[in-house]
Amino acid sequence: MQGRSISKGTGSGELLVSSEPISFLSGVDPETGIVVEHGHPLEGQSIAGRVLAFPYGKGSTVGSYVIYALKQNGLAPAAIINTETEPIIAVGAIIAEIPMIDRLPPEFSDLPPGTTVTVNGDTGEVSCDGTS
Ligand SMILES: C/C(=C\C(=O)O)CCOP(=O)(O)O
Q1: N or C: which end of the chain has fewer CB within 10 A?
Q2: Where are the transmembrane segments (predicted)?
Q3: Domain count, the chain
């Protein structure tokens, strides 16, 4: 599936999908990689090593730095997919060198949980590697 390149590089992992936006500052613990926002659909789940898909970022601009801190701590997502990104997530992914794309076709939402996907941030493509 073809999307838009945001941050270069290639990353593979199990798809973790949030129907809701994510605030990295105060919403994700950079020391554990776990979503800690109360009531968030991903609350309690680790984003480390996953291909993290969510609509777009929300909250503080400091979220870019939290994404960088996650990478420094070895807890970053393998790649990020947004429906339509905005500067906080895009900057975080670029400075942390996390592959990132957005603007995928609607069929992307048909991929079942547990699918392993590869995100190519150079070309903007995502490919399905199978289910685990
Ligand atoms: C630079 C900021 C905070 C800090 O140094 O901790 C301000 C961030 O402003 P937001 O309105 O939260 O983006």
Answers
A1: C
A2: none
A3: 1
Residue nearest to atom 11 of ligand 1 (CA): 60
Write out the two tokens for 81.
Answer: 């997919």
Of 50, 47, 59, the C-alpha closest to 21 is: 59
* Marked catalytic residue, from 5, 23, 60, 109: 60
CA distance linking residue 115 with residue 27, whole number of Å = 25
Ligand 1 site: residues with CB under 6 angstroms?
60-62
CATH classification at residue 25 = 3.50.30.10
Q: Give pLDDT tens digits for 49-62.
A: 999 999 999 999 99
Instruction: Confirm whether 64 is a catalytic residue.
Output: no
Average pLDDT over residues 63-67: 98
